[in-house]
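Case study 2.
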Amino acid sequence: MTPTDQPPATPARGPVDPTTAHPARRYNYWLGGKDHFAADRASADRIAQALPTIALAARENRRLLQRVVGYLAAHAGIHQYLDIGVGLPTSPTVHDIAQAVTPTARVVSVDNDPLVIAHARARLPTADGRSAVVHADLRHPHTILTDPALHTTLDLDQPVGLLLLAVLHFLPDPDDPVQAVAHLLDSLAPGSYLAISHATLDPLPAASAHHLAALAAPDAGHGPFQFRSHREISRFLHGLDLLDPGLVPVVAWRPGDPPHPQATAEQTAGYAAVARVP
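Prediction:
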């Protein structure tokens, strides 16, 4: 058993810290939401100075979510979803998209931020028995997979759509995110799907890439973050059956499906892929 497989002695349940930027609240700010603090806005604005299209990139990731879940629900026959790193609820949610196709679809939403959890429990339809909210951390997949709410809501003997959209770049290599994802996939039935999106510097001009890389440094004050190349991101998909069009820019993943992308690969600086568990 690797360190990643071990549950933490005390899972993260701490209070909200308004003085430290958090990615979910920063993302909410870029999307035009209201659930953020001054520290989140300051961090978001600093990042936007290096990548002025970051708010557009956030919106494109939401469009990607709709295309991915819409495809899995309508074409892959997936009726249950494990959404990790859900962030603050934004319409349409995974619940909205999946249950529009299959009203009985089931969704478990996971996040490590107590503010996100509070909002999710207040806004998501958990009372219907087809949805649950789990406060846990992707760095410790064991705590996700052993949570009673997950097993009450999802049947892991049947295919699941594992959604890791815009979350893996918050786990630097020392956190061993590849192993964390592999641990989750090992617990899913054949015929399950993994969907990822991940920030990259690959399409950016050298100056922009340099500025963003500096903001991702551990001492930059924006929290843990690691850009990865196409080759590095492909490690998360090892051993899976990659769906067309493969590991491609976020805006190039099934762009013919609604909602259609409205940006370029350089503006969004991210890759996306969906793959099937054989």
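The radius of gyration is 17 Å.
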